[in-house]
Amino acid sequence: MIFNAIITVCLLPVAFIFYFMLLNNLKPKKNIILGVTLPHNAHDAPETKEICNLFKKRLNIIMLGLLLLLIPPFFLNFMGLTMVWFMTWILLAIAAFMAVFAKYRTKLMALKREKNWNSAAAGRALVDIKAATLVQKKINSLLFLPPVIAGLAITLFSFVNANEFDFVYLYVIFTSITVIFWLCYYLIFRLRTEVVDENVSVNVALTCMRRHNWGKFFLFASWLTGILVFFIWIINDSLTGYLTVTLAYSLLMLALGIYTEFATRIAQQKLTAANTGDLYLDEDDYWLLGLVYYNPNDTHLFVNDRVGINVSVNLAKTAGKVIMALSVLALLALPFLGVWMWKEEITPVKLILNENALTVRHTKDQYVVPLSSIKSVDLLETLPSMIRVGGMGLENLNKGNFRVEGYGTSRVCIRINEPPFIVIKTNDNIYIINDADSNVTKEIYTKL
Question: Would you say 308 and 194 are in contact if contact means Cβ atoms under 8 Å apart?
Answer without folding.
Answer: no
